[in-house]
Amino acid sequence: MPVPKSDYVSNVWRDGLFANKVVFCTGGAGTICSAQVRALVHLGANACIIGRNVEKTESVAKDMASCRPGAKVIGIGAVDVRSVKSLEDAVERCVKELGSIDFVICGAAGNFLAPISQLSANAFKAVIDIDLIGSFNTVKATLPYVRESALKYQSDGKTSNSAGTGGRYIFVSATLHYAGVPLQIHAMAAKAGVDAISSGICIEEGPRGITSNVIAPGGIADTEGLARLSMSGGSGRRTSGSPIPAGRPGYVKEISDATVYIFSDAGNYVNGSTVVVDGGAWRTMVQP
Ligand code: HXC
């Protein structure tokens, strides 16, 4: 039974919005990224999702493809974003089978709670390697195709390209590092670096028509991230105990909606930004 579109993306978006577009997503079998990709597929895109677990990645891809007649979704498992070669092979297969890469979501991440006293150098490096170096590797492997897409779909801002948009990066980051939280030095350092990569791409590649933006989710219900970090109050950062201004946790659909906005024609002039999707929670973080 296909998952209803309304579970993954708001009905404000039109069907076919991303027809003939291809999204390449690392960490694409995870809860947040799979929702982002599923929304794009519902709205017309084809997709290539990358993960370490072969069975999970292939099964999520198969399920995503069932959400729209004619949708093509490739799931490539046994790809570790820490390995440049395995990423390059995946990119090559994506372009060979789907024809292009128009949108990239850098979503692969690893995390756990640990105080600095129990955080080994290798543990710190593992998270930096997955989140930060993995995002860098993903950009390196995809950039030639993303440049091609940006050139093809550029818009002058006054008139929309009737063929749609392309040449866009989204990095899935976090808000942990804005004020600092306990037990997350590894993730905070990694995500601060991820934010910096996005800013650098905005500056360097913006003149070629590429946009690069960050989505920073808050505590999103029913995600592995929330489960892993629940020991520190759910989102790993609510040290003050103050309520989320929105009065509830977020849902994956709300991350998908931000993704659709950034990749759509409505997001043409959004570049180098961070879209925080956390119900206002980061505004309540303990400030110095
Ligand atoms: C302390 C730990 C640890 C823990 C692992 N390590 N877990 N140290 N506390 N709970 C240490 C290990 O002892 C080892 O150090 C080092 O980390 C590497 O561990 P490995 O298991 O060999 O690494 P690897 O198999 O590559 O696994 C990477 C991982 C793992 C990050 C450690 O948790 C993982 O694969 N996670 C992927 C899934 C995941 O985390 N999803 C959640 C994403 S959510 P030593 O010194 O012993 O060699 C997310 C949201 C962030 O990221 C933002 C939140 C709001």
Question: What layout of secondary structure does this protein have?
Answer:
Elements: E1 22-26, H1 31-42, E2 46-50, H2 54-65, E3 73-76, H3 84-98, E4 103-106, H4 121-152, E5 168-172, H5 176-179, H6 185-205, E6 211-217, H7 224-229, H8 252-263, E7 274-277
Parallel strand pairs: 1-2, 1-4, 2-3, 4-5, 5-6, 6-7
Helix pairs in contact: 1-8, 3-4, 4-6
Bound molecules: hexanoyl-coenzyme A.
Summarize this entry quickly.
The protein is an alpha/beta fold and 288 residues long. 40% of the residues lie in helices and 12% in strands.
Q: Look at the structure and name the CATH superfamily.
A: NAD(P)-binding Rossmann-like Domain
Record the strand order, biggest sheet: 3-2-1-4-5-6-7
- The number of domains: 1
What's the average pLDDT? 93
Radius of gyration: 18 Å
CATH topology: Rossmann fold
End-to-end separation: 50 Å
Largest sheet: 7 strands, parallel
Keywords: NADP, Oxidoreductase
Protein name: 2,4-dienoyl-CoA reductase [(3E)-enoyl-CoA-producing]
Pfam family, one: adh_short_C2
GO molecular function: 2,4-dienoyl-CoA reductase (NADPH) activity
Question: How would you explain this protein's 3D organization?
Answer:
There is one protein chain. Strand 4 (103-106), helix 4 and strand 5 form a beta-alpha-beta unit. The protein has a single domain (15-284), classed as NAD(P)-binding Rossmann-like Domain (Rossmann fold), CATH 3.40.50. The longest helix is centred in the middle third of the chain and has 32 residues, at 121-152. Helix content is 40%, strand content 12%. Strands 3-2-1-4-5-6-7 form a 7-stranded parallel beta sheet, sandwiched between helices. The radius of gyration is 18 Å and the shape is globular. The chain is an alpha/beta fold. The N and C termini lie far apart (50 Å). The chain has helices spanning 31-42, 54-65, 84-98, 121-152, 176-179, 185-205, 224-229, 252-263; strands at 22-26, 46-50, 73-76, 103-106, 168-172, 211-217, 274-277. Helix 1 packs across helix 8 and helix 3 (84-98) packs parallel to helix 4. The structure holds hexanoyl-coenzyme A. Hexanoyl-coenzyme A binds next to helix 4 and helix 7. Hexanoyl-coenzyme A binds at residues 109-112, 114, 118, 120, 122-123, 126-127, 130, 174, 176, 187, 224-225, 228-229, 235-236. One of its GO terms (biological process) is fatty acid catabolic process. This is 2,4-dienoyl-CoA reductase [(3E)-enoyl-CoA-producing].
